[in-house]
Design a protein that fits this description.
With about 240 residues, the chain is an alpha+beta fold. The protein has 2 domains: about 80 residues, Arc Repressor Mutant, subunit A, CATH 1.10.10.10; about 150 residues, Beta-Lactamase (2-Layer Sandwich), CATH 3.30.450. About 50% of the residues lie in helices and about 15% in strands. It is built from 10 helices and 7 strands. The strands form 2 sheets. A 5-stranded antiparallel sheet has the order 4-3-7-6-5. It has a two-stranded antiparallel ribbon with strand order 1-2. The chain is globular and about 60 Å long.
Length: about 240
């Protein structure tokens, strides 16, 4: 029983540590979580050490606090996030953004990328059907404002990734399901994306996937909000396109 309790506590501490880091963009100290769990800072530090040894957390050289690794984010996304659902007000905002039956495909996808960026505060990307090499994007400013992208080299890489298109299209087209796929840091498979994550979904016409939607942002994005937002936009867009 003690082992089960300890494992559950480790998972809870990992989840809270990642939530803190997503929210504050600062390494998590033991004192930041001790009150939440009614545990001493020393006990939290011991759990941090176990999680770091297992590869879920790391610590920068300039701080005693911890921050998530790719492995930590992956475990968080796959196992620790609770039931994901948008609030009704946000669903209504997304559903009401489209003028059904009166817009071209290009106009609808431009609106979709705008909507994704506004709802998620990341870059929203809408790729046209597979035979087309075009995509539209909005909201790069949201990424550049994040502390992970303050240095010039990160900004240059981010702009090149989007403007050169080929590499980003290769990543986006790995996925052809409405179920959201999440690629974190080095999972993207290209140099310079260590601080990035991309979430991908397809949109359908007559039940067939024809194009992709994506949200590009920092690894430290609010997955609990971005995942259901992307899912719902994909669902609504598929309905809208059936009327074009």
């Amino acid at each position: 029983m003690k082992t089960v309790d300890h494992d559950a506590r480790r998972k809870a501490v990992l989840s809270s540590a990642i939530n803190f880091y997503i929210r504050e963009a600062e390494p998590v100290a033991s004192g930041d979580l001790s009150a939440e769990f009614d545990l001493s800072p020393a006990t939290i530090r011991n759990i941090f050490a176990e999680l770091e040894e297992a590869g879920y957390l790391t610590h920068p050289h300039t701080s005693a606090g911890r921050m998530p690794t790719d492995k930590g984010y992956r475990y968080y996304v796959d196992f620790l996030l609770s039931q994901l659902e948008l609030i009704e007000e946000e669903k209504a905002r997304i559903f009401g953004a489209y003028e059904r039956g009166s817009e071209t495909l290009d106009a609808v996808l431009e609106k979709t990328s705008d909507l994704l960026s506004e709802v998620t505060h990341c870059a929203g990307i809408a790729a046209l059907p597979d035979m087309d090499e075009r995509f539209v994007y909005r909201g790069v400013r949201y990424i550049i404002e994040q502390p992970e992208f303050r240095d010039a080299s990160s900004i240059r890489f981010l702009i090149r990734l989007i403007e050169e298109k080929r590499l980003l299209l290769e990543i986006i087209r790995k996925h052809n399901s409405r179920k959201v796929a999440v690629y974190i840091g080095e999972e993207l498979g290209c140099e310079g994306t260590e601080n990035c994550a991309i979430l991908i979904s397809s949109y359908n016409v007559k039940e067939q996937p024809v194009g992709r939607l994506a949200v590009l942002g920092p690894r430290r994005m609010e997955y609990s909000h971005v995942i259901p937002a992307l899912e719902y936009v994909s669902e609504v867009l598929s309905e809208v396109l059936s009327d074009i």
